[in-house]
Amino acid sequence: MRSLSRTVPPVTVSLFREATGVLLSMTGFGAARIETDALGVSVEVRAVNNRHLKLTVRGSDPYPLYESELEKVVRRHVRRGTLHVHIRVERQGHAAAPALNTKVLADYLKQIRTSCAEAGTPELVAPLSAGALSLPGVAPETRNGGTPPDDEWPVVEKALDAALVKLNQMRREEGKAVAAELLAHHAVIAEQLAAIRTLLPGVVTEYRQRILDRVRQAVADAGLVLNAETVIREVALFADRTDVSEEVMRLTSHLEQFAELIRKGDEAGRKLEFVIQEMGRETNTIGSKAGDVAISRHVVEMKSTLEKLREQVQNVE
């Protein structure tokens, strides 16, 4: 019978603890303000978790209409997450008021008065007239597409860039804290796996001893003849059913990959999610095959820690 201790590589817990990568958190805040002779532009950016990139824009007209242009700037700095961008533009001096088409407005008001008189509802003249400015052709239409104003866009773009730089500074700082927590949980799993590895050789030995004890008891009670081949076959079958050496090797490899992704730290969130999923699969298999109470306790601890990893990784870009 092969020795499991020869087929399962040792788990180097100390190596994992020394990993010091920096990840990017998906939550943070950044703000910037730029002033020129003609403009004062303030931009605030708040980021929260999201599996994809989602942008919402609020603030001074007409910039909420140019989300696609703003998203191009955002993508230079951020890959995932929901970003709430608020842009406030303070224009110096007084801009010329948009010209109304007074002739069209007068025609609308005349039609309203005439229609109400014919219908015998003069009380509706005032409320209907109040909405005349929104009727087609009265006021200039606001642009709802294309590119932002040429005279303002360079300043707004620069302010947004600056706010995103500050956002990423905060995301990096928070990412360091997240990386430290991930590695702490990672070390717990590595320690539990190392403990399981030391228990594996004894599982088969203990089972063999239990079988022998039962057979000896049966011989003593009923005068049966001890069949050594039957005992050996039963122990061999048990050893095959409970052999988790491959699962332990794969889980060890996943742990190494997990630590390496944290070291690299560049857009590692989705990769970490996948590795955690694979770690969970191997852990479940070890728990179902091992057939040992002590190993089961370690597996429960590993599963609990994996859940903590899953929660933490949700905040990693």
Describe this protein with a few key phrases.
endonuclease; 3 domains; YicC-like_C; 317 residues; hydrolase; 10 helices; disordered N terminus; elongated; Ribosomal Protein S5, domain 2; YicC-like_N; alpha+beta; hydrolase activity; four-stranded mixed sheet
Percent of residues in β-strands? 5-15%
Q: How far apart, in Å, are the first and last alpha carbons? A: 47 Å
State the major sheet. Answer: 4 strands, mixed
Q: Return the string of H and E elements.
A: HHEEEHEHHHHHHH
- The strands making up the biggest β-sheet line up spatially as 1-2-4-3
Number of strands: 4
Radius of gyration: 35 Å
Specify the overall morphology: elongated
List strands and helices in order, with pairings.
Layout lengths: L3 H4 L5 H5 L10 E8 L3 E10 L4 E7 L7 H8 L6 E11 L10 H18 L5 H6 L22 H70 L5 H14 L3 H20 L4 H22 L2 H21 L4
Parallel strand pairs: 3-4
Antiparallel strand pairs: 1-2, 2-4
Helix pairs in contact: 6-7, 6-8, 6-10, 8-9, 9-10
Characterize the structure shown.
The protein has a 4-stranded mixed beta sheet. With 317 residues, it is α+β, with helices and mostly antiparallel strands. The longest helix has 70 residues, at 153-222. It has 3 domains: 4-22 and 173-313, no CATH class; 28-95 and 151-170, Ribosomal Protein S5, domain 2; 102-134, no CATH class. Helix 8 runs antiparallel to helix 9 (269-290). It has 10 helices and 4 strands, in the order ααβββαβααααααα. The two termini are 47 Å apart.
